[in-house]
Amino acid sequence: MKLQVLLILSALMIGMSAYAAEEPAARVAEDAKVSVQKPEVSAKKAAEEAKEATQKAAEAAKLALEKAEEAAKKAAISGEKAAQKAAEATRDAARKAAKATREAADKALEAVKETARNVKDAVMK
Fold this sequence. Notes:
125 residues, mainly alpha, rod-shaped
């Protein structure tokens, strides 16, 4: 009977040792899974952050482009307005020059007529 008790105790001790060895091995396996998962999670997080940064950069570029287009339109409008004002000023100057030329021609004609009358009067006397 002693032999049976010893065998049973030995079997229990071996079982306890095996159980005790399984628990740390299971922890190591779980830790290995966690350590493998951590880089994956970090990589996914980094990829998401990079994607967000890329989207923000694209939005900023789009906004800058819109502002540049708006500024170009304003400059074009300002250029058109400046061209219109220049054209108006040129027209006004041309009108004034034509009017002054007409007035000078009228005065010259009057002077020629006056001179012709004076010559006619002088010839008649």
